[in-house]
Amino acid sequence: MTIQVVDRKMYLAGKWVKRDRLIEVIDPQDNRVIDTVPAATSKDMLQCIEEAKEGAEISAALPVHQRMGIINKAADYIEEHNERFARTISREGSKTIREARKEVMRCIQTLRISAEEARRIHGETIPFDQAPGSEDRVGYYYRFPIGIIGAITPFNDPLNLVAHKVGPAIASGNAIIVKPATVTPLSALLLAEAFEEAGLPPKVLSVITGYGSEIGDTLITHPAVRMISFTGGLEAGEEIVRKAGLKKIGMELGSNSPVIVLEDADLEEAAASTVSGAFWAAGQNCIGVQRVYVQESVMDAFQKRFIELTRQYRMGDKQSEQTDMGPLITEKEAIRVEKLVNEAIDKGAVLLAGGRREGAFYAPTVLTNVPETCQIAKEEIFGPVVLFYKVKDLETAIQLSNAVDYGLQAGIFTSSINKSHTAIRKMNVGGIMINDSSDYRIDAMPFGGVKQSGLGREGITFAIQEMTEPKVVCFKLSDA
Question: What pLDDT digit, counting tens, does each position of 230-286 carry?
Fold first, then answer.
């Protein structure tokens, strides 16, 4: 089966264009080519940016009710074609069809919230007469769009994470250029199709497919691009910061999220939640569970139940309704995860489940006794592997949770409100989920981390704040 996405074209400033040089889109499950997309050049990106200058003016001039209407119509289009969107997500990426359908539903929610938040881009009055000599002045501030936004998006949520940048950008009156992940460009192109069908004026949105090494620097460094919104890995994020120059930067750079399980927790609920949180989308999830700190008195019982549920996890055909987990995004990534696990085992870690690779598939894996010197204990795994640690008490768990360079989200399972608040105060993360795994998020909440997990916040309201600037207006009055 071949997925056709607008005749293998990319969306350049409101026009669907072809290029002679193509990039193959490959299903990681069987390495079949499912489609091709244009390999854009730096010249294409420069043209796109020039067009986006006019697009930014068009977008800023759109009345709020028109922005809302367009975004809602795009959400309607996705809702009407939800299975097509879900099949595309599943075929080009790692998600099972059930996981992909959930992503489509979240994308619709993201756009609906974006439409609603367009009406809530407020300013405030300013009491200028608080300063002596300013008794005859009144004024306010309002927020205005910054212009052109460059969005660089990852493969693991190829539709909804694009919507998290496009929805707020259009809601706040900006133009946006999306450079989707090279391995999963089709979902982003479908989103562009939805906005075109919704009546978005040309030049406001572009989705440019190509290799980051060829078009990324042009987007990142161009002075007309006033913000770069990036979701991806730490090394790429650091490179963007070095190159971007004087512009806004929004970054979500991943994590190696901890979950704490205390002796007063509901162990069944904790096990089910952390298994799902560890292996959703084959573990390729920035808030996925990576490290689990379990109080020693319940370690054996919790670990036993976790492993039972892990062994029940069904790995296989992504298109099957019965499958729980598909492959990693490429066989290269599966080999990388395999090497990390093998290094840990060679250094003394104990394998409790999984540890098997077949092509791009890597079985859900549980390790314990992992030495802290192992790379897998310090870095983001971004694969279906979870590490277990026995701890004496909450303080020890918090100390170990914080002893890494990341801080995106965390989870804690406990029936104690006091212990919950201790964790809330002391854990160095951007979000903490009580009696949920770290892998919980709604699209309206502020989302982002501390330390090397990123800069700024996503979540529609908070993304809009990043994508706008305040302008102060002051009137000097006279008696005449």
Answer: 999 999 999 999 999 999 999 999 899 999 999 999 999 999 999 999 999 999 999
**DSSP structural state of residue 315:** B
Residue whose pair of structure tokens reads 């080009």 in the numeric block: 92
252 is catalytic: yes
Name the one residue in this structure whose structure tokens are 């019982």. Answer: 301
Active-site option among 51, 107, 196, 286? 286
Q: How far apart are the first and last CA of the chain?
A: 76
Pick the CATH number of 258-443 from 3.40.1280.10, 3.40.47.10, 3.40.309.10, 3.40.630.30: 3.40.309.10
Q: What's the rounded Cα separation, in Å, for the pair 457 and 54?
A: 27
CATH homologous superfamily, domain 6-253+454-472: Aldehyde Dehydrogenase; Chain A, domain 1 (3.40.605.10)
Segments making up each domain of the chain, as ranges: 6-253+454-472, 258-443
For 395, residues 6+ apart whose C-beta sits below 8 A from its C-beta are: none
92, 103, 252, 466: the catalytic one is 252
User: Strand 258-261 vs strand 10-12: parallel, antiparallel, or unpaired?
Assistant: unpaired
Distance CA 265, CA 308 (A): 18
